[in-house]
Amino acid sequence: MPRFLAAAVTAVVAAALAVGAALGVVALLNVTPDQPNVPLISYETATPRK
Questions:
Q1: First CA to last CA across the chain, in angstroms?
Q2: Three-class SS string for the chain?
Q3: Is this model's pTM higher than 0.85 or not?
């Protein structure tokens, strides 16, 4: 019986660890990176000279 109990506890701990790791990965993937709002190309918006 102690061997069966050890196997059951090991399986439960392994399942909990797998679920925790999966939730951690999903949480990391949902984090939005900091993106500066600076355009790489800017165009002149003033009226052109005649």
A1: 95
A2: CHHHHHHHHHHHHHHHHHHHHHHHHHHHHCCCCCCCCCCCCCCCCCCCCC
A3: no
